[in-house]
Amino acid sequence: MITYSAPGRVNLIGEHTDYNGGFALPIALPQRTSVIFTPAETDTLTVRSDLAEDPVHIPLDTTPGQVTGWGAYAAGVVWALRDSGVPVTGGTMAIRSDVPIGSGLSSSAALECAVLGALASAAGVRIDRTEQARIGQRAENDYVGAPTGLLDQLSSLFGEVSNALLIDFRDITVQPVPFDPDASGVTLLLFDSGQRHGHVDGEYAARRASCERAAAELGVPSLREVQHRGLEVLDAISDPVDARRARHVLTENERVLDFVAACAELDFAAAGGLFTASHASMRDDFEITTGHLDLIADSAVSAGALGARMTGGGFGGCVIALVPAKLTLTVGDAVRAAVTEAGYVEPEVSRVFAASGAG
Ligand code: GLA
């Protein structure tokens, strides 16, 4: 029997930069997805989840399109692992998870990385973590059909206690950066809006296509290649919407590096300001927030948060805020009140911190 688990993640800053070869700064969450795998002499993997009534039966020679729904993430990993030459054993897998689904905390990457770790362990194969992330991404891109980047898998695999991960997606390097706001009297608060999203729908793909068109028009393989040329470079993009999407990506990359510098100086007021600027850029230039998420972020800041931003792919999910510890309850209460007064469901508010990666 093999037990393996992988965490969800919160992206502190650097949204929609991963598929543009840019920078992001996620943390792994204490919430995890765990797998108990009992290998057997069979050509089927039977997967049960505490969140679903019926088990999913995955033939080991599965191909994209065969399994749908939540089981597609596990089936995608089976397919991508075999495709990269790793032998996969059948058997039964029991999955438990406390990573909320569809809330922008990477429940899908947590599931992929936990299943992948269990299957690779059973096969007695050691796979480099960056390669594991690529296999998880292939499962999601080519089996599930969501054109996502590498952010979520890298966060889940490389997570470290009390550290954020500075990821450079140009050469896929991951550098731990100390991140422990609690030690400075600042809390990282998470507001789960309860508004759910799915990346298989068109909006994520449309944002990605806009960025790719902008890069192509500038004659570069990814927007990262014009980062050093300043925002004037965007004047050469003919479509004004594509230009705004690209502006978000370039300014967001800068904010990631500025945020790392602010954290190094324990300047959480500056770090909070970057959260708020990032939210505005996602609202105005990238247009991936919603009125509901804007209200959570704005009311947190009005009540005394140092800054707040939506985290994850967008169109629902969670907002994070840096809050002076003594104002934690005040800010939580103010946001709950503003949100329910506007007729939305009450958000779930929790404190989060950087936790360990898959293993
Ligand atoms: C989703 C995707 C990631 C990344 C984020 C936005 O979580 O899975 O690859 O693009 O959105 O930063």
Set down the secondary structure blueprint.
Elements: E1 2-13, E2 23-39, E3 44-49, E4 56-59, H1 71-83, E5 91-97, H2 107-123, H3 129-144, H4 151-158, E6 163-168, E7 173-178, E8 186-192, H5 202-217, H6 240-264, H7 268-284, H8 291-302, E9 307-311, E10 318-324, H9 328-341, E11 348-352
Parallel strand pairs: 3-5
Antiparallel strand pairs: 1-2, 2-5, 2-6, 3-4, 6-7, 8-10, 8-11, 9-10
What key phrases describe this protein's structure?
9 helices; alpha+beta; binds alpha-D-galactopyranose; 2 domains; 7-stranded mixed beta sheet; 4-stranded antiparallel beta sheet; Alpha-Beta Plaits; globular; Ribosomal Protein S5, domain 2; 359 residues
How does this structure look, described?
By secondary structure, the protein is α+β, with helices and mostly antiparallel strands. It folds into two domains: 173 residues, Ribosomal Protein S5, domain 2; 173 residues, Alpha-Beta Plaits (2-Layer Sandwich), CATH 3.30.70.890. Helix content is 38%, strand content 23%. The model has no long low-confidence stretch (mean pLDDT 96). Bound molecules: alpha-D-galactopyranose. The site of alpha-D-galactopyranose (GLA) has 11 residues, from helix 4.
Judging by the overall fold, what is the CATH architecture of the largest domain? 2-Layer Sandwich
Could you tell me which ligands this complex binds, including any ions or cofactors?
alpha-D-galactopyranose
* Global morphology: globular
Specify the helix fraction band. Answer: 25-40%
Number of strands: 11
